[in-house]
């Protein structure tokens, strides 16, 4: 049973204030201004954008996964480049991937690889901002985000696919290079367009989504009475200032009602109702169960779900890190594609896997800030000049390779692709007009995407 708990101090048990619940909790559950959503949808329709019922699952490998060790191996390169693992054939001729991905090798026909992605920065924050917002402008010396995430913009315009579900969710949390919600957030669109975070570990036997339970002392039966729900929010409403939020509360009341009492939402977040055999197939670890929860959410009507896989900053001891991480990724990704296919969702859900950048094609000797005596445990440093992005489902054709890097994996040698190309493609799947404009804090109009185009070879 889900709860929204307030203590005597007016805060949740996790320290979130009542006001923040109203501004981020309810509104963040896909509750953009109704007039804003209708206006944006109208513009999309006038532009000839096809109305769709599609969703996106973004698997975010925070820290930067090496293209040379995952999806773009170079077995003919010198040993210091080609790395530790060998490529294996997939069920798609010519699409070889790491031997650490045997399960994905069996379903490679369900996804495609963009091997010529680049933004040419080795700064974690700049790279993350490019990949998640489509723009640069930040750095390790100035980390605050300057633009909304592509997912915040999309869900502001499109809303949820089912009104009983949040439009934008992050599992278990939204984190870009340690910043929460970081570059996944709404920025100048407002905190109401930040993702709703489940926070708890989906692999925990006691997994429970925070802030989605009825208020203390209020039963589900009472919440089914519309008047009881409205009464329970009266005190909260009185605490809201008169800046305009109060005027939108009538519209938010129904959304809160649907989220707290709706059977659809409660079932979608309840992993305990899932078949144990399927849970094992995804992997009984945080990443596997997070991906399974993401599938449940998009199936129920969430438009955009991000899943956080952290810890990819392998400057040293690359083998230890990859030996641990790659099997979990392989299990979760392969299970997701197979599950979507079996449920008839392959054409409705786009899966995207990427990080903020890649790693240097040439391995180091284990130094670069490594622990004492770390020599002999090679790693790879930061690299944004060549990256790989996996995309599949939602109308994106599988079994295709877009672009290529040179023989050492250092830079695109064919069909260069930038973050905007990825974003245009995502918006094409969602039915989002990439020329939609938003207004920043200064009143200046900002386009959703300012570079690139749809990767047409994927359709």
TrEMBL record:
<dbReference type="InterPro" id="IPR017850">
    <property type="entry name" value="Alkaline_phosphatase_core_sf"/>
</dbReference>
<protein>
    <recommendedName>
        <fullName>DUF1501 domain-containing protein</fullName>
    </recommendedName>
</protein>
<dbReference type="InterPro" id="IPR010869">
    <property type="entry name" value="DUF1501"/>
</dbReference>
<dbReference type="Pfam" id="PF07394">
    <property type="entry name" value="DUF1501"/>
</dbReference>
